[in-house]
Design brief:
Structural class of chain A: alpha+beta
Strand order of the largest sheet of chain A: 4-8-6-7
Order of helices and strands of chain A: EEHHEEEEEHEEHHHEHHEHH
Radius of gyration of chain A: 18 Å
Helix content of chain A: 40-55%
Distance between the termini of chain A: 12 Å
Strand content of chain A: 15-25%
Number of strands of chain A: 11
Oligomer: homodimer
Chain lengths: ~270, ~270
DNA sequence: CGTGCTGTTGAGGACGATCAATGACGGTGG
DNA sequence: CCACCGTCATTGATCGTCCTCAACAGCACG
């Protein structure tokens, strides 16, 4: 199997890039970890109708939008959110490369329409028509992978729920950061700097911006975060200790064997 | 199609009951709302290896248990929970008749092992071996229904997350109660009394028992809850207003047409 | 060179946690 | 039948975390 290259039209930047979305890309690693086969990735990419670039702060999916297409995040960071009556924003989940932005909408149409997806950085998104989904789901391994993706989403919410109900602001923020680090690592992104603002953290953790700021300063004084403008983790172990974070729920074990072999064939 | 009757051995009460788990039962209504076909219910019930009775406060699934079988709640109320390091209990979700207790464990084995399920009332549970699941999933409508069940679980967590992050204790408790009322109604249970204690509400809402008590007393003074020993809702509309509850996420629309026809054939 | 977004700091106040004790109810055994 | 026990509900008092309001600094952008 050869690496798959496509041309991406990035609307804001208004230029054309040749980018690899193949087996070594976040989406490839994601599908792999969900137990899909290498062919599944190829078939998924063939079903892509077009690629979109979205600028930071723009909506990937508007809250009221009636969706007839599914979107997959290929590059950049987004969040799914809900508006509060006071105009505020509750971040339900961060989304990283390889994540399906609105799988929930395909599986349960109409009863989750109030959820929007917003770009936190400049992003690249793949768009697939609903009418092409049947073909994808006829492949048992791919269907199972999508089911697992749903379950993983549920597991992530579940963890967030416990962490949010539970502890102090310090624990909650630490947990949130650990989750993002682990999820990004699972798709091959090892950067220690996290691509979102303190305000985003506040909306996700259910805390005020002010208190998040103070919490982050505490983490900095503990030499867990770097004392810079951005959110950058320097002592991951300590962060996990503070959060009491057990990342096993992020990873899907026992399902990777086949892939590991095949990946070696193609990438080495 | 005839109504399906099975004999249930209830271990604690030590007696044998003839009970109907057919199309009109909570499980039947649940599958219907998930878009399954009538035959799917029959086939699911045929796959049931045995039925178990569990007494209130006992574990349906122990936290460390290595599961090779899936459990479906037929009668009674349970909760899925996680232990906190201090010994406390975080209730992740209440479970009502028709709910799958541990679908997550089947889809994502090994990475959710710390979750237990506890009976809050006396319960009846159906047990299905994992090795019989392949046969069930070979039916596309049933497989889709199980996928939707996963998504519904995620949606419930998502709502809980927003409500927990957001408001005051009053709103959170009100939301939690609304969710349970709506979910029970969706499977044909219209009782206004909810079958769990204030301590359970506290563990689910992430509040202290003391404060839950005071919150419930506030709701009683507003004539939303009945001034009795139990948790009984008398003014549902007002409760939903307090919680800003929109129950649409509980129901799965657009998927019921086939069933509605068939159900009339069998039940009228 | 303003305008907006993000980050930072200070002060006051509210909500909910914690500790502690008591009451009400049902079951169990002497 | 009553004493005892465990569970659940209730009440009071104190304390801490986190919210709110308010102001300001740094930086990117047009």
């Amino acid at each position: 199997m050869q690496l798959i290259s496509v041309y991406v039209y990035v609307s804001r930047m208004e230029k054309v890039l040749g980018v690899d979305w193949g087996a070594g890309s976040p989406l490839g690693l994601k599908l792999k970890s969900l137990g899909a086969e290498v062919d599944d990735l190829e078939i998924l990419l063939q079903a892509v109708k077009y690629y979109v670039g979205v600028a930071a702060h723009d909506n990937v999916i508007r809250e009221a939008e009636a969706g007839e297409q599914m979107k997959v995040l290929l590059a950049g960071t987004t969040c799914s959110y809900k508006r509060k009556e006071d105009g505020g924003r509750t971040i339900l989940s961060f989304q990283h490369p390889g994540d399906f932005c609105d799988l929930h909408r395909y599986v349960l149409p109409d009863n989750e329409s109030a959820i929007g997806v917003q770009a936190l950085t400049d992003c690249t998104v793949a768009v697939i028509d609903y009418r092409d989904m049947d073909g994808l789901l006829s492949r048992p391994t791919l269907a199972a992978a999508l089911w697992r993706a749903s379950m993983l989403e549920a597991a992530i919410y579940r963890e967030r729920l416990t962490s949010t109900s539970r502890g102090t602001a310090l624990e909650r923020v630490a947990h949130l950061l650990c989750e993002q680090l682990a999820r990004r690592e699972a798709v091959g992104i090892h950067a220690s700097r996290l691509p979102f603002s303190q305000a985003d953290v506040a909306d996700a953790a259910g805390l005020s911006v002010v208190h998040v700021n103070r919490t982050i300063q505490t983490l900095r004084s503990l030499n867990v975060l770097k004392a810079s403008h951005a959110i950058e983790v320097v002592d991951r172990k300590q962060l996990m200790r503070i959060a009491e974070f057990d990342g096993r729920y992020i990873n899907v074990p026992k399902l990777v064997s086949k892939w590991t072999v095949r990946i070696k064939e193609t990438r080495d």
